[in-house]
Amino acid sequence: MDLKIIESETQFIIDDVIEKSGIKAGQVFVLGLSSSEVNGGVIGHNSSAEIGEVIVGVIYRTLKKQGIDLAVQACEHLNRALLVESSFAQKSQAEIVSVIPKLHAGGSGQVAAYHLFEHPVEIEHITAHAGLDIGDTAIGMHIKHVQIPIRPNIKTLGAAHVTALTTRPKLIGGERASYKA
């Protein structure tokens, strides 16, 4: 696996998803990542710390420059908990749980974020404004209602399928209601 290609394609994908989602400073972005899938394996069985470091590093730096908080989803062995900066957990009043991610219990994305973040903590729930799913990790549970699929210009990263989600406010009120254009 050529890590330079992964880095370049990750940058292209995250820039594309940020633009298409309309996410803004002060909002939260969730990342689901299977380095196993990127590496051509089966989710959870072929994890790569190096791939996780490259992908999370690009996404973290890009979001941080724009003032967007990153939450990295864990694998099912940690019940899809999310690694975030403690400052985000405090401002969102999220309950912190006690666990330190490992390559095969949390995943390569969480391990990379754990080392990149200034003060990483795990939380169980989040309501993100947008997100990126690399390797079909099922991030939908962490995205606000109403979810809108985003079709990135690059649909694979390595061998992994890439999808993304954004949101819009719910349309309520029925046929008599008016909505902003």
TrEMBL record:
InterPro entries: Antibiotic_NAT-like, DUF436
One Pfam family hit: DUF436
Recorded family membership: Belongs to the UPF0340 family.
NCBIfam families recorded: TIGR01440 family protein (TIGR01440)
Protein name according to UniProt: UPF0340 protein GHI93_09435
